[in-house]
Design goal:
heterodimer, A: 443 residues, alpha+beta, 2 domains, 14 helices, 11 strands, B: 403 residues, four-stranded antiparallel beta sheet
Chain lengths: 443, 403
């Protein structure tokens, strides 16, 4: 029966080629436009650390030392080194990592090659398991290497290929600024669309090429390249102190702290630890403002920091409405197409076809058009995404920023079937409701 | 006119009317909101920095050779770089500054009048040498710029000294509403240092936080082994063409560093990239939407004509001329489109309310809705014209057939 209906639909397409093309193009445009912009939204808004986003929490405290803070909506977005060190040492969270970005000079092992600048992130080793970072060779460094700190590094695939000609670089060394680092791990291709670990400074940026222990910040005098804020200028005599002491004394807020808290009890325990930490600091004369500790899970932080650009949301909403208009348009076109052959339907009804048969026949035709138009729409959206990618660019792995994934293709097909059904039900009902006698008369 | 008969015939084809009205209304709602977003974004894109953007190159120099890891050596390198760049033909001015026009980053600080309390003012804060004004192509409109002595002394100035600053007029207007800014003092919000306003510039725009047009420039070098140093170069002609020569000359003077040279127009393009994409996307969606809607109107009017061939024939046979037939369909379409436009205007405001509340964007203005309504109304009538003209070709003889 389905085959028969499909054959009838095909005949109807052949009988009205222009109209059928218009219908298919209408669906294709609607589905193409909405798939493009919903994909853009979906890529940015979906869970950046699947499976972990519920347990990873971002930590903020109100350590601002002046009465009026420039941060209107809450505590400063980043923390001071001294506070981060204490919290990392406390051992209260199951895992924790603090980080900040910088740029350093990489000297290739082959001295003939020119040195170059690379993005570097200073982290602690829990970073890798916390954010599900994939490894091609080796793995994270030991926790013991964090404290000392040891000269160990994890590098990106691309950097490994550049430094060691594509061979496994684990165990080999390269110079970073003024000292040699031993490679302990090489990352697999890794290009999260949203960098969950740094939503404050550049959430859509690429991951860094080099990762080294946080405690090198002092000995190597690493300057943060991300955002930093401070409320305290150095006092006379402080300028000559070692860099790291200035960062500590200067109350520079530049470090981001993440903790892993697997259940509500641990969250509560960590929150009460933070409360007591702030109370203790208040006794020492720090944290003069009203305490405002925030322990925020990944997805809540994404919403709060508006990681998904509002323009992307607006376009996704507008493109859905576009699909609605396209479907409305279809109602009109189907209505015209079906009513034009009312007399044929009259003959079929008179020969014994039930209303239901006629209804199904026309709905099948609508869904066929929906499916063809939807597939064309998916192709169109590939073009649309290619245009978006020209601005958002390719990652270091050569993979375009916005990509159509399998769930989105299914969603697009579902959308086109839905558009076909919504647009088709009323015209199909109208045509099957026509009394056969009226159209037989004039034959 | 035949309003009565047309209205009654519309009532008999309610489905078709509802479809067109809904389509036109939704289209207007979307188009008006797209236009509003486009105008809003384009207003931001059109804002000029006030500098001679089209003739500037930003040079970043990051040393890596250990021999350069010394303050004295780096300072000498800055001086020699400035001389090297100035000596190149086609270079108008060069400045060693931390200001990057159209750069993604920047620095903001809080200041207030010394001794006062309350909300501090947020302003951008950069160090620069005395040639910054020539390089940017702006003038000090009141007071003076910096002197060489102030630049040399800048590095040694202790917190107890007063720092000379040149500020933008917009900042001066807020800080000193009486209009006399030059010679007055400001202080960092933590009272760590006093600032003396020595001059005013009238043009400055660099989008950064809430302080896009408020700036304080202070004399000082932008140099360091970690941070590197940066230079703004103002050229006579096309800045892009100068880049290879600048790079060669600078590397010729010192190889132990990386150079990154970009033209300011290039940086501006990059800065605006996503907003331009938004405007292009909205334009594309709008054009396709209007296309779909007008095709829909063409289609529905065609059916309406096809369905009524016999009535048309009858009317023609009874004496109506072709003009009457065209007028009939145009009037019918005009009534339906107008209803859609009126509903659409209301829907546009409803949609705008939703967007502003849950997504983002600016309030809809009346002219935008009016222009959108007028445009859609004309498109509606134009779309109906073709089918109506074809309807007028129906010969009167058809009325006599098949009856």
């Amino acid at each position: 029966m389905l085959l028969y209906n499909l054959r009838l639909a095909w005949k109807s397409v052949r009988r009205h080629p222009v109209l059928s093309t218009l219908i298919v193009l209408g669906i294709a445009l609607g589905v193409g436009v909405s798939t493009t912009f919903i994909t853009a939204y979906h890529v940015l808004a979906s869970d950046p650390v699947p499976g972990k986003s519920g347990v990873l929490h971002y930590v903020r405290m109100n350590s601002w030392g002046l009465p009026d803070s420039p941060f209107r909506d809450g505590p400063p977005p980043q923390l001071a080194y001294r506070d981060v060190r204490e919290i990392l040492k406390s051992g209260v969270p199951a895992r924790s990592t603090a980080s900040f970005p910088s740029r350093m000079t990489v000297f290739p092992p082959n001295a003939k090659e020119q040195p170059f600048r690379e993005s570097v992130r200073l982290i602690t080793s829990d970073f890798f398991p916390m954010f599900n970072v994939p490894f091609r060779y080796g793995g994270p460094w030991d926790r013991s290497a964090d404290a000392k700190p040891e000269a160990v590094a994890v590098i990106s695939s691309a950097l490994n290929d550049r430094l060691f000609g594509g061979r496994n670089g684990v165990g080999r060394t390269f110079r970073l600024d003024d000292r040699d680092f031993r490679v302990v791990g090489v990352l697999d291709r890794w290009r999260p669309r949203v960098r969950a670990y740094d939503m404050v400074v550049d959430p859509l940026g690429e991951p860094e090429a080099v990762f080294v222990p946080l405690e090198w910040a002092g000995p190597m005098e690493v300057s943060p390249t991300g955002s930093q804020s401070t409320w305290r200028s150095p006092e006379p005599g402080e300028e000559d102190l070692p860099f790291i002491d200035r960062l500590v004394l200067g109350e520079v807020l530049f470090i981001q702290l993440w903790v892993e808290l697997p259940d509500q009890a641990r969250v509560a325990a960590f929150e009460s630890y933070l409360d007591s930490y702030v109370a203790e600091q208040k006794k020492l004369g720090r944290f003069p403002n009203k305490p405002d500790n925030r322990v925020t899970p990944v997805l809540d932080l994404m919403t709060e920091l508006r990681v998904v650009p509002p323009q992307t949301k607006a376009l996704a909403a507008i493109s859905l409405l576009f699909l609605v208009v396209a479907a409305l348009n279809l109602i009109g076109l189907f209505l015209g197409k079906f009513l034009a052959r009312a007399s044929i339907v009259g003959v079929r009804r008179a020969l014994g076809a039930s209303r239901w048969t006629i209804f199904v026949q026309h709905l099948v035709e609508c869904e066929l058009m929906g499916l063809v138009g939807g597939s064309l729409g998916v192709l169109l959206s590939l073009g649309g995404l290619a245009i978006l990618n020209r601005v958002y660019g390719d990652g270091p792995d050569g993979v375009a920023f916005f990509q159509l994934d399998v769930p989105m293709v299914f969603a697009a097909i579902a959308l086109s079937l839905a558009a076909g059904a919504i647009a088709g039900i009323y015209p199909a009902w109208r045509i099957c409701a026509i009394p056969p006698a009226r159209h037989l008369k004039n034959q | 006119m035949e309003f009565g008969p047309i209205f009654r015939s519309l009532l008999r084809n309610r489905a078709r009317v509802v479809v067109i009205v809904a389509e036109v209304a939704l289209t207007l709602a979307i188009v008006a909101n797209c236009m509003s977003l486009i105008l809003d974004t384009r207003a931001q894109l059109a804002r000029e920095s006030g500098f001679d953007d089209d003739h500037m190159v930003l040079v970043r120099s990051n040393p890596f050779a250990e021999s350069l890891n010394e303050e004295e050596v780096l300072n000498q390198l800055v001086d020699s770089d400035l001389r090297t760049l100035r000596a190149l033909p086609g270079v108008r001015a060069v400045s060693n500054t931390s200001l990057e026009p159209w750069g993604q980053g920047g620095s903001i600080t809080s200041v207030r009048l010394p001794g006062t309390r309350g909300e501090p003012l947020r302003a951008q804060f950069y160090s620069a040498d005395p040639s910054i004004f020539d390089t940017l192509g702006i003038r000090v409109v009141q007071g003076r710029g910096f002197t060489r002595e102030e630049l040399e002394h800048g590095a040694d100035a202790g917190p107890t000294e007063t720092l000379p600053v040149v500020i933008s007029k917009t900042l001066a207007d807020v800080a000193f509403p009486d209009g006399k800014a030059v010679g007055r003092e400001l202080a960092f919000a933590d009272e760590s240092q006093r600032l003396l306003v020595v001059g005013l510039i009238d043009r400055f725009y660099k989008p950064l936080g809430a302080a896009a047009d408020r700036v304080m420039l202070t004399p000082g070098r932008t140099v360091g082994f970690d941070y590197g140093s940066s230079y703004l170069v103002r050229t006579e002609g096309d800045p892009g063409a100068m880049i290879p020569r600048m790079e060669k000359a600078l590397l010729g003077a010192e190889k132990g560093r990386f150079l990154r040279l970009r033209t300011v127009p290039e940086m501006r393009e990059e800065f605006h990239g996503r907003d331009r994409l938004l405007v292009a996307s909205l334009n594309g969606v709008m054009a396709l939407l209007v296309l779909v809607t007008s095709l829909g109107i063409v289609g529905l009017t065609s059916f309406s004509v096809a369905e009524r061939r016999r009535q048309i024939g009858t009317r023609r046979a009874l004496g109506a001329d072709k003009g009457d037939i065209v007028r009939h369909f145009l009037l019918e379409n005009w009534m339906v489109t107008s209803l859609g436009v009126v509903l659409g205007a209301a829907l546009a405001y409803a949609l705008n309310f939703g967007m502003v509340t849950w997504v983002s964007g600016a309030r809809l203005s009346v002219p935008v809705v009016a222009v959108g309504a007028l445009g859609l109304w004309l498109i509606g009538i134009a779309s109906a014209l073709g089918p109506a003209l074809r309807g007028a070709q129906v010969p009167p003889a058809i009325a006599t057939r098949n009856v």
